[in-house]
Structures are given as C-alpha cells and as structure tokens.
Amino acid sequence: MTIQEGELLWTPREAFAKSSQLASFMDWLRVHRQLDFTDYAALWQWSVDCLEDFWAAVWEYFEIESSTPHECVLKERTMPGAEWFPGARVNFAKHMLRKGRRGWPAIHHRSEIRPSATLNWEDLRDQVATLAEAMRRMGIRPGDRIVSTLPNTPEAVIALLATTAIGAVWSACSPDFGARSILDRFQQIEPRLLFAVDGYRFGGKDFDRRTDLARLVEGLPTLEHLVFLPDLDPAAPRPTLRPEPAVRLWSEVMAEQPLRYEDFRYEDVEFSHPLWILYSSGTTGLPKAITHSHGGMTLETHKVIAFHANQTPDSCLFFYTTTGWMMFNFMVMGLCQGGRIVLYDGNPLAPHVERLWQLAAEHRVTMFGASPTFVQMMIKAGVRPAKKYDLSALEGVLLGGSPATPETFAWFYREVKRDLWVTSQSGGTDVCSAFVGASPTLPVYAGEIQTRLLGVDAHALSDEGEPLTDGVGELVIRKPMPSMPLYFWGDADNRRYRDSYFDVYPGQWRHGDFFKVNQRGGCYIYGRSDSTLNRAGVRIGTAEIYRIVENVEGVQDSLVLNLDLPGGSFFMPMFVVPKPGFMLDEAMQSRITQALRMQGSPRHVPDRYVAIAAVPYTLTGKKLEVPVRKILLGAAPDKVASRDAMMNPASLQFFVDFAGEVRRMVEAGEQQR
C-alpha cells in the first residue's frame, strides 16, 4: 500500500471530538472566562499569547490543591529561571491519587515472571501511604534522593509515589542498565535509599543482578538504606553487602505498620521543589541529571494527560516502556484522571510477537502506546491484530521515541482499526512531556504530528532566528513552560543547562531537533539537528532519508552520516542492514539510489554504501547517529557512547573498525568537496 506524506487518514467523529476532555475545557473557558474559540488553532494561539491566563485557567479547571495561595502565575517570562506560582505549596503524588474510585482497578500488571495481577485504587493508595510512612521512619526527609533499579512493576509505581508523597526526590534506572551506567547517573545525586531487585527475565532468559547490586552499593557511599525485592527468585536471601546499608525486604517494610490512605499526611512542598531526576541518554558523556519540579509536573501532567491523551476515569492507558525511560513516569502520570494503566515487564515479542496486542484486548486498552521501532517489528513479522483480537475498546494510539513514518500510520489503519486516533508526539526527557503531539479534535495526516501542544510556543527557526512556515529549521520554544527543568543536579552555575538549550538563541530553548510546521499547524520532526546532513549548504534531516531507504526492497535498517573532513571536504556513507535472504549488492544499491533521487534529491544519495549486521540503538530505540559519527572521526568509543545505555552494544565494534578505513580514505584524498 503506497501512502503519501500528508495524506488524510482519519477525521474524528463529531461525537468523539465533542465529548473529549479538550472540548470540555473549551466549554469551561466559554462559561468561566468568556473566551469562545472556534477551533484548536485559536485556542493554541491564545495559550501562548496569554501564557499566564492559560496556566491560571489550567490551575482552576483541574482544581489544583495548594495549602497556601500563590502570589502570581509567572514572575517573569525568562528562560532559564522562570518562577511559576510563587507561594504555592503542592504535592504531585496527592494529585495522581485523588481521583481513583474505590473498588475500581488502577493498575493491571503482566510479566514474564509473575502471574497476572490487578491492583485496585484503594490498595494502591494504602500501599503508597504505608511505604511513605515507613520511609519517614527511616529518616527520609524532603529533598533526600531516593533511587531505584526496580523493573516495570506496581512496586516501582508505589515507590515513586511514596517518595514524592513525602517530598523526597525520585530517580530510576531499569535493571537492564549495567552497573557502570547506573553509577554514572546515581553518583551525581548522592542517594540515601535504594530500591533494588534481584534480577529480571527478558525473552525467557533470566538475568541475575545481585553482583551488580553489590557494585552499586560499593559505589554509592551516601547510601543508608536498601529495600530489596526478590522478584526473579522469591526465595532469594537477603543480600549481604559491604559497606552495609540497612537492608530490608520489600515485604517486611510493607507489613511492619500498614497505614490507611485516609490517615496519611502528604508533604506539601514549594511549587519549585524538586520532584524527580531524569537523565539524558548518556551516549555523549556523563548523563545530564535533569531535575523537574512538583508544581511544574503537576500542571503539565493534567494538561497533557487530559487534553492531549484524552484520558478519563473510564480510560485504560498502555505504553510499552522500562523504568529507565521517561515514559514510565508518563504512565504514572496517566493515573491523574482516575483511570487504569497497564504495566508490562518483559520482552514485547515474548512468548509471541502479538503479546502486546493480546494485553490490549484482555484489558480493553483505550490508548495503546509504543515506539515506531516496535511497529516496524510488527510490519516485518506480518502481524495483523484486527484479525485475531477484540480491539473494540481501542480509541487511540500514541507513538513516541522517534519519528513515525507515513507507513507506520497507515499500518494501524490497515491492520488494527479504521476508526482510530493515531498520534505521534515529540518532546521527551527534558520536559517529561511533549512539545508537539495530539489533539482529539483534529484530523490525522500520514507521517504528521497533529499540532503544537497548548502552552508550548514552538517554532521552526531559521539560522537568522526567524520563524518559518513550511520550512525546516531548529525546534525552538520561545516562551517558558512550567515543566522545563529547574536545573541539572550538581550543575552549580547552570552552565551545562544553559549550554544545552540556550547557547544558540539566548533566552529561547533550542531543543536540538530539525523541525517543520505547515500551514495548517501540523508538525514534522526530521531527526536531531546535531546529526543533520549538510550537503553543499543544503540541510537534510536523517529521518526523511530513512523513510525512503527503509521502504526499498530488501532493506531492513539503515544509518546515514555526514562526516565533515579537513580542508572543507565531506564524506557521506550509508550503512545498510539487508533483510534475511538479501545482499547489499549492486542491484540493491541501485534501487536505493534511484529511490533517493526520485523521492528526495541527488543530495540525498550517499557517497558509499556499506553492509552492516546491525544499527546501534539506545535502550529507548534511537539510532546513535552522533556517537557513531564521532567514532568514525577518531573519537574513543567509550568517551562518546555508553555501552550500558545501548540496546545492542556489540554493534559499535564495526564502526570502531571502520574508522580506520575512513582515516585511510582521508589520507588518500577519496572524499568530496
């Protein structure tokens, strides 16, 4: 099936659009603010022009609870350093748990290890209260850092909410991270308590992490407490560690003094009090310890979960993730409207490639989430969910992690459901949300992100700093958002923070993505701007090349780079993973070249094709374009790429070896000018 970028694929039914959370907010604005917006575009424009009025309306509409009044909405529109809702005292966990209905399910959990389980709202709230009070008895105080290597289980959700309920600061890595990679993150923040697991199972294979746990404890001298969850082996003994923190089993902590939710006291903290610490991928040096605030994330959560994901008390949200990705935090955020979430711990293709669709049918998931990489696996495996599963409850699909192609969109309409709100989003760890994403009131066009989110003044800027329409430029946020980081933990003078986002356009956030907004407000992400291909002055996003190449017969995956070489020359190789049964022979190279010329331009055609066994990916499914480029230009691999943060670390070795060939080629003068 041939699909053109920008082709109309779906228009929301009138009843769906009018019953959406977004439409309800527009009705509320009409009644309470005398603001009548004809469409989403007008609402978005007001939300960024009248920034303070918009966020004040969000605060009132969702009845955000503060134990003290705020002085104003925003002191100054400065970045970095915007001060939101000074004087307010809030608690994130309180807002995530307040809407759940007694007797109704909150979390469905599936795992390769445990039997299926469901946690009701009253049990979730009581367990959060019990753990939070136990942490207080351990001496944990507001501002203390609490870290976790728990897998994607209810215990991880409970631990996050209990930590934030008492004003402590949460941070997590998934158990599949190596010890060195975890220490690179946790050593920066000096934690007092660690939640840890004995191991995990993935694809039917067991991974014992107790040796790594000993290394973590040894490398974290500030650690005073360890709460140990024997998940892989319930009979696993309590670990003996040196130096020895106070070690307790999860079951012991939870059984010691059970507490009812109604008897628990939340710790209300300043709006700008740190909530959690997320990390950049760590592919290019020490990961940045990105610190978000209680108030900022409470507001952003309500906005994005209700208006842009359209979650209600009757919704069921699923996104395949690990605890080391911000999408785990997003799943916890999904509780704020009182609906259900589904957690899955394990290989999404085990015991069969349709596992996640089986979960969606079993739990009547209304919003299904995964990465475009997962969808490509479905396409290649010939999976046809609609033929086998009852997906009648499914209303929407949320794609995140990397740019989604038109073919990805089309697959859902062909193989899952015709009446389906297929959405793609982009934003990420930096704001633990999205800049551009979904609206339930707008149509869906192939390969196109529906819109800029409310309160996000996102633009594509030219090199001169001018906004572009239908032109590709840098993704820049021109006004502050409450969920922008407070700071990077340990970055005392904010130098690293400023250099990361504000070095090119002072006072404006440059995100580092290649971006386009079209006439109707639809958005496109064309890959990282720091991996942008610059061919004779013409900038090309890698995502548009991948979209063309990976639809050529016989191509399974690809990686393209542009190497700027001494003397103003350049070299653009393309690395191709052929499908089983195919070779990167002259015929395949000719097919790729022809496709790139016809669908792109002569500048899209690489200087050389090279066959490889695998493209290097991060654990969240992003291609390591920048680290590989640096390796080919002579950088030491361990300086630019953290193998523990990779899905397939062995794949780097090819490029380490190929760097020698690049060096010989440069010496022989085989590059272009």
Give structural notes.
The strands form ten sheets. An eight-stranded mixed sheet has the order 11-10-7-5-6-13-14-27. A seven-stranded mixed sheet has the order 4-3-16-15-17-18-19, with helices on both faces. Strands 25-24-26-28-29 form a five-stranded antiparallel sheet. Strand 28 and strand 29 form a beta hairpin. The chain has two domains: 89-517, ANL, N-terminal domain (Rossmann fold), CATH 3.40.50; 532-668, GMP Synthetase, Chain A, domain 3 (2-Layer Sandwich). The model has no long low-confidence stretch (mean pLDDT 92). The two termini are 39 Å apart. The chain has 21 helices and 36 strands. Helix 6 (121-137) crosses helix 7 (154-165) and helix 8 (179-186) packs parallel to helix 9. With 673 residues, it is of the alpha/beta class. This is Acetoacetate--CoA ligase. It holds the Pfam family AMP-binding.
Tell me the span between the first and last alpha carbons. 39 Å
Low-confidence parts: none
The biggest sheet amounts to: 8 strands, mixed
- Total count of strands: 36
Q: Roughly what fraction of the amino acids lie in strands? A: 15-25%
Radius of gyration: 25 Å
Put simply, the count of helices is: 21
Strand order of the largest sheet: 11-10-7-5-6-13-14-27
What percentage of residues falls in helices of 4 or more residues? 25-40%
Question: CATH H-level name of the largest domain... which superfamily?
Answer: ANL, N-terminal domain
- Global outline: globular
Averaged pLDDT, please? 92
CATH architecture verdict of the largest domain: 3-Layer(aba) Sandwich
CATH class of the largest domain: Alpha Beta
Protein name: Acetoacetate--CoA ligase
Family: Belongs to the ATP-dependent AMP-binding enzyme family.
InterPro entries: Acac_CoA_synth, ACAS_N, AMP-bd_C_sf, AMP-binding_CS, AMP-dep_synth/lig_dom, ANL_N_sf
Organism: Piscinibacter koreensis
